[in-house]
Fold these 2 entries.
Entry 1:
Amino acid sequence: MRAPIAVALDAPDAETAARWARAVTPHVSVVKVGLELFCRTGPSIVDSVRGGSGAELFLDLKLHDIPNTVGGAVRSVARLKPRYLTVHASGGADMVRAAVDAGEGITIAAVTVLTSMSDQVLDSVGLQGPPIDAVRRLAALAVGAGAGALVCSPQEVAAVRSEVGDGVVLITPGVRPAGSDAQDQARVATPEQALADGADLLVIGRPITGAADPGAAAARIAAALPQR
Ligand code: C5P
């Protein structure tokens, strides 16, 4: 049994990512490879971080292009057998559907509104109104197009759950154990709070990978959570 945590392996190189993965996978269910590491190392990173651990892979590529191209990209990474693969919901229903259709066995996770976008930034790209309205609208659009998961901030997770109901996996970054540094995350919640509000999978990076002993940090956070 492992905790419902995806450790963000935002490492400067493949060796560091593999070392972190070896340390944390006894305690957590998922490892997350993001755009920076994937672009630097290429697909070979997947084998080195997953190894024989049995952990699932979260490929956080946040795809956003015309439906045909996104479908092709999903087919290209399907051989890596990610459990989760991210796309931007704002690419539209046809784009999300193309990803879902191309990704047999992959749970397509739609990003609604990036948590880095302030009200002013949203306004400047033409998304007027409170961010939560756009989050709800894009969540419903993505689920309607077949997305099996959504990425949202801990502050949005309860509203998103009420919008899409049960059966959709809600993934939340911005998770910080009580007393730890928020770093550049503006809206944070503790792991326990995020799960209580309806999250299914917690993305945690630096509180684990920045610790002197990442394995011990993962074990400590995991021990406080229900195992799945
Ligand atoms: O180190 P930290 O716990 O802040 O890492 C969070 C991870 O989640 C990073 O890989 C970051 O890119 C990702 N993420 C995020 N906010 C989003 C979407 C993804 O922090 N809205």
Entry 2:
Amino acid sequence: MFDLCMGSLVAGAVFAPHCMRAADNEVAVAAAGKVDAKYLSYPVYDGDDLGLTVNGSTALFRLWSPEAQAVKLNIYNQGRGGEPVETMEMTKRDKGTWVATINPVPYGKFYTFQVKVGGKWLDETPGIWAKAVGINGHRAAIIDLESTNPEGWAADKGPQVKAINDVVLYEMHHRDFSVHPNSGIANKGKFLAMTEDGTVTPLGDKTGIDHLKELGVTHVHILPSYDYNSVDETNLPANQYNWGYDPYNYNAPEGSYSTNPSDPATRIKEMKEMVKALHDAGIGVVMDVVYNHTADNDRSNFSLTAPGYFYRHNEDGSYSDASGCGNETASERGMMGDFIVNSVKYWAKEYHIDGFRFDLMAIHDTETMNRVAAALKEINPSTFIYGEGWTAGGSPLPVDARALKENVAKMNGVAVFSDDIRDAVKGHYSDAADRGFATGKPGNEETVKIGIVAATAHPQVDYSKGNNSKFPYASSPSQIINYVSCHDDLTLTDKLAKSMPGATEAERQRAARLAQTIVFTSQGTPFMFAGEEVFRDKKGVHNSYKSPDSINAIDWNLKHLNADQFNYYKELIALRKAHPAFRMTSAADIARHLKFDKVNTPNLISYSLLDNANGDQWKEIKIVFNGADTAAEVKLPKGNWTVVARDGKLNHTGLLNADGSLQTLAGGKTVVEPRSALILYR
Ligand code: CA
């Protein structure tokens, strides 16, 4: 990455010299219509001291606002209310920045910036680089970040990941996971919930971090945990709920997840304690990041800093809206792209975050995502970067430049969610009643196979028959996240209830097991939504982003009620972790070692992982999925097969007979029970 400074890029430009990031130039020009063209000439400031920097006994404040006529710095005694104890005029410096210094560092105080543009003073803002904030995030706080480090923080490290496909992702919202009265957790809905050992339900089942250890997932993926807008931190007893896809301060944690949102250090310290507790348990932490849009338009911290610059616009000057949330950011512009890169770097370094899930990633350009991945891998080679390879609406960003699922091969070290396997296995996400392969709807077989081979080129997969994508978009299985459900849309439990209305709960649980067995044995990285292992539901609410705890909380008594379901998931994860054949590292290996059998029965897929694939101890693993509600028959080669999964049961070291011996099969005609997976090895 390098900067190229040009004399004059746009005729009549105000600023000189004009610094443009060379690699982004082409995309930025293509994305800028006549309304946004002026931003091409804005200077890029590439220093790392935006916001507040402490140098010895001096506090340096720096704000980037190239169009500002004047900038004020307000100092307060408190995080909200009251008058400024001091207001300073900031001084214009290089590359569109404004600076002020205070000596000695006024620790314990709060600050805001205020920008004058077009002859008008805008509202106060903590800026876009506030690393500590007061209640509800309206003012930035001056604290000693070092003092927020838990004991042993310097030695804290997330799990080392040898190959990205070794990761098992568990997507979790802080309140969902701990807030139910029977969670046995004291710090309900808080970062600290994860730091509690030995928590159990009234029925004695493990909850919290012990539950995660028991389940065996390698990484927790936490829903947005930066400071978001919707939950009023001054009124925590109201128990407001929100997923948090309404970013306010990108570089400070959310206050409502802390035990004291009015103390700026507490949320930081408690989030770090959560990370450390998970790391101590060998579990990595992935954070959901939402740089693609902000909660507010004109009143966002971006708009109050440099109005217009950070967003894309339509030709009529209105905000373009690829996020479906009222605006979209402009990663192709120097300062926005840099902001994303520097922000994730900050979370990786200061909070030891092990991975980032990019919301609506295709609103960003591939070049920015490549910079993100390169910067994070330099800090920690085990960092996992993935995202939603789509937008939620049209965008001025050219399709070729978008970090789309279909463009994932242009990105190095970035993975995308496979909506192919998701919709093919359980039925389409937007039609509650629609069924998929695992629930008996024929015609999805080829798309499920696309999922099984992690969307890589495979001689036996006909992409022209794919429901969603028509070509092998992944060049490596490391680029694919397989899943059947997440926080969005119906939970798997609710989807099965709505699409299998006549079925019993036991039948739906069988379908859920089959669906997840497909995900967890597929090449690529598996991802699951918290609570599916206990068959949690959300009472049929598909968009529960602000639904109360009564909808979103996981009732942990389900772990007792659905103990068989939990054990199946546990064994399924153990199977995947014990067998590298499910985690091949290249498209070539998959093409060579994964062979589909010719079957002509609808809702039936049979394949083998051959020749000790990826160094597996098992020479051949046979995997058969029957999504029909009737038994199917397959012809197995003669041999000494050991049964790992059959008829809705799974044991990663082999199913046992009543006398304790391993279940075996000799091959030949073999029955595969309805809605179940048959897994064998020899
Ligand atoms: Ca907040």
